[in-house]
Amino acid sequence: MTPSSPPVPHASVLDLAPVVPVVVIADAADAVPLARALVAGGLPAIEVTLRTPAALDAIRAVAAEVPDAVVGAGTVLTPEHVTDAVRAGARFLVSPGWTHGLLDAMKASGVPFLPGVSTASEVVALLERGVREMKFFPAQAAGGTAYLKSLAGPLPQARFCPTGGIGPDCAPDYLALSNVGCVGGSWMLPADAVAARDWRRVEDLARAASALRRPSRPAPARFSSHG
User: Fold this and answer.
1) DSSP string, 167-204
2) Per the residue annotation, which of 80, 135, 149, 203 is the catalytic one?
């Protein structure tokens, strides 16, 4: 397991930056320069999805070599994913949906997690289990900002990271909602830039994404998975 980072004041994953990059890594050798570009652009929370064979090696490399990054694992689907991701150095976990078994494993992992929801019933079920921070997925297809706004009245204690179909044009609309802490997206990682290893372009796009924070939102806090 990657050595733990020194304890720092705790912050929610939702409050680290206005955007969490959702990263699909095909070549683990790209992980460190890509993460450094995102961090330099102001996006320290990085979700590496467990969709490729390179994902765990990528998480391991970023955790070891990019100390200012808060690397997490996305597309977490099983308790085994939870164990493997945390052993690799993931400091938070994100799932597109949840079951009671998966939720139990994430709660036992010792790191923050964002289980995925797309309905009010799923939100209520998570609140019943003591979970108040969630991923809203697939955000655009599941009702977008109108749906999230309608949840804020009856379920104000729930906070969300909407992900799925979000780009720079609609991200500010999500960030303006009282129950949204951040959004997830991959628009700062265009396929041609990653293929060309154009990390300067990635950094520039990340910097523009980090500037999407609404004026009233406080500056990002330091993060620790130690609580």
Assistant:
1) -TTTHHHHHTSTTB--EEE-TTS-HHHHHTT-HHHHHH
2) 135
